[in-house]
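Input structure tokens:
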């Protein structure tokens, strides 16, 4: 049974989520504050969860703080954040903090369930098709999709699950342009009319890790009017 931690301070919404997620066969625990979420996930006696549903607006430490602390502590649990309508910057800030996906409140239950299902499914999908230790950049850069680690000339970066998924998708299509629409559908499992700007945010982060000069990217190239192309070695 998959275990989901819901961090939500609006009790009626939290109870509704519990009811519906349990009806779908998930085991659900609810906490109302960011501090409690950190205790459950990264405290001295952490519990094991498969997914985190994280509201951004919380009393005390907010969802951004929770996300940042978790990722800093090396916890890369797939995370769906809940944002208030009309706060577009929250989405980018949430992704920058390490969230994997987001949903705007108020949301339809069916959409929430689809997103949760998608995050859990992608995590499983990653298991059998691991391409561990893919090396590029004349062998000086390696990504380990098992450990979600990126190593660049001996320096190691921890990737979030979604950063790794984006990089994997690009690498799987090495040398070929991939469109933002294809990525939003195949990496995120969302409809093609979804706003694709968050992808650019992921690309900026990946470039910061892997490019010698992120302003003149050599590996994750922009294909104007299309999307992006991964090039492992220069001159190919
Ligand atoms: Ca709230």
């Amino acid at each position: 049974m998959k275990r989901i931690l819901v961090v939500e301070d609006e009790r009626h919404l939290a109870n509704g989520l519990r009811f519906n997620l349990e009806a779908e066969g998930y085991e659900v625990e609810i906490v109302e504050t960011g501090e409690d979420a950190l205790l459950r996930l990264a405290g001295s006696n952490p519990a094991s969860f498969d997914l985190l549903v994280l509201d951004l607006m919380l009393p005390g430490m907010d969802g951004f703080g929770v996300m940042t602390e978790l990722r800093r502590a090396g916890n890369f649990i797939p995370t769906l954040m809940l944002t208030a309508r009309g706060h577009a910057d929250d989405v980018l800030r949430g992704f920058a903090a390490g969230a994997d996906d987001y949903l705007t409140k108020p949301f339809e239950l069916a959409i929430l369930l689809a997103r949760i299902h998608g995050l859990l499914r992608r995590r499983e999908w990653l298991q059998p098709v691991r391409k561990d230790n893919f090396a590029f950049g004349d062998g000086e850069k390696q990504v380990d999709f098992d450990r979600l680690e990126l190593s660049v000339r001996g320096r190691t970066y921890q990737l979030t699950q979604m950063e790794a998924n984006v990089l994997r998708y690009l690498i799987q299509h090495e040398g070929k342009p991939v469109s933002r629409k294809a990525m939003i559908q195949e990496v995120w499992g969302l409809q093609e009319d979804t706003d694709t700007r968050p992808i650019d945010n992921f690309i900026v982060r990946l470039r910061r890790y892997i490019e010698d000069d992120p302003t003149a990217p050599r590996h994750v190239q922009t294909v104007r009017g299309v999307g992006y192309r991964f090039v492992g070695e220069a001159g190919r």
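Residues 169 and 196 are 15 Å apart (CA to CA). The first strand starts at residue 3 and ends at 7.
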